[in-house]
């Protein structure tokens, strides 16, 4: 009985460190994890530089093994510190954690799987777990609300841009034809989108006077089109910022990063006694 209680207490403490960023231990863990993720991605980049890798291969290889082992231990700790490890393993972050851990092991098991080592760059996605704390900052919350409120307007805008791209691309195909590289309507639409977004790869260019005039119109439209979604989001952000400043602070519901030990759901209210998702005591 005592062993069971001791084990439960140990798992509870481990869960607090790994999953709850509001605690001092949790903040320190997230900081160390953040540094480790950045370091591991820099390591992947350095390994891709042939001259550097040839000179420091042994050191890079040893460091990668150290990082892989640390990530493996962290992944195992996440599994054993919750009551339903399968839920975590099948979650978005669980899959990312798993994918960022196994490439080095697979390179030894399967021949020719060295290409999987590049998957280690996916470790950057793990930073999102740490940066979820941003949503508790007022400005970020207002930006999130502004983006959410703008999504319908932006969706309609993108739909209009796509229609415009199809029409203009078709016109360019008719005006220029195969001789100028506009060999099909889809390829002409590709050129139109590249021009509208002011990317301008230069792999295709209009040759006729009419085509060049049409290209000029598309370029001018592009500058205006880029500004539209920015204006939509800015207007919504300003409105939400003003609304936020006018709200009484006492009516604000505060949430924290406390994670449920049963289902790992976060963002509970400060005064919550049970998980809002599964009802487990917090």
Keywords:
Ion transporter, transmembrane helix, potassium channel, mainly alpha, 282 residues, 2 strands, Helix Hairpins, flat, 66% helix, two-stranded antiparallel ribbon, membrane, ion transport, Four Helix Bundle (Hemerythrin (Met), subunit A), 2 domains
Say which CATH homologous superfamily of the largest domain is assigned.
Answer: Voltage-gated potassium channels. Chain C
CATH topology of the largest domain: Four Helix Bundle (Hemerythrin (Met), subunit A)
Going across the biggest sheet, name each strand in turn: 1-2
- Largest sheet: number of strands, sense, barrel closure: 2 strands, antiparallel
Give the CA-CA distance, first to last residue.
22 Å
Number of helices: 10
Task: Assign a percent range to the helix content.
Answer: 55-70%
Give average pLDDT, whole number.
80
* Alpha-carbon Rg, integer: 26 Å
Outline the low-pLDDT stretches: none
Task: Name the CATH class of the largest domain.
Answer: Mainly Alpha
**By helix and strand content, what is the structural category?**
mainly alpha
Number of strands: 2
Query: What's the overall geometry?
Result: flat
Tell me the series of helices and strands, N- to C-terminal.
Answer: HHHHHHHHHHEE
In oligomeric terms, what are we looking at?
single chain
How many separate domains? 2
Shape-level CATH architecture of the largest domain: Up-down Bundle
Membrane topology: Multi-pass membrane protein
Main location: membrane
Keywords: Ion channel, Ion transport, Membrane, Potassium, Potassium channel, Potassium transport, Transmembrane, Transmembrane helix, Transport, Voltage-gated channel
Domain Ion transport: 27-243
């Amino acid at each position: 009985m005592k062993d069971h209680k001791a084990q439960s207490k140990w798992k509870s403490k481990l869960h607090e460190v790994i999953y709850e960023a509001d605690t001092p231990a949790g903040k320190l863990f997230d900081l160390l994890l953040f540094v480790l993720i950045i370091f591991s991605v820099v390591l992947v980049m350095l390994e891709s530089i042939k001259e550097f890798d040839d000179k420091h291969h042994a050191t890079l290889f040893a460091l990668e093994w150290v990082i892989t082992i640390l990530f493996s231990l962290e992944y195992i700790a996440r599994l054993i510190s919750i009551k339903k490890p399968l839920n975590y393993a099948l979650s978005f972050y669980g899959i990312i954690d798993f994918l960022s851990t196994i490439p080095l092991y697979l390179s030894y098991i399967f021949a020719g799987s060295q290409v999987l080592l590049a998957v280690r760059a996916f470790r950057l996605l793990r930073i999102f777990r740490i940066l979820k704390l941003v949503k508790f900052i007022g400005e970020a919350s207002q930006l999130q609300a502004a983006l959410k409120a703008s999504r319908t307007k932006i969706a309609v805008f993108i739909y209009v841009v796509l229609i415009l791209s199809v029409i203009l691309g078709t016109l360019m195909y008719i005006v220029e034809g195969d001789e100028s590289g506009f060999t099909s309507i889809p390829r002409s639409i590709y050129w139109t989108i590249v021009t509208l977004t002011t990317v301008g790869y230069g792999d295709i260019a209009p040759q006729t006077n009419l085509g060049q005039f049409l290209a000029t119109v598309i370029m001018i439209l592009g500058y205006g089109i880029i500004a539209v979604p920015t204006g939509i989001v800015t207007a919504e952000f300003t409105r939400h910022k003003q609304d936020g400043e006018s709200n009484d602070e006492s009516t604000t519901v505060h949430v924290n990063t406390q994670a449920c030990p049963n289902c790992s759901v976060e963002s509970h209210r400060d005064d919550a006694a049970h998980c809002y998702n599964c009802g487990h005591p917090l």
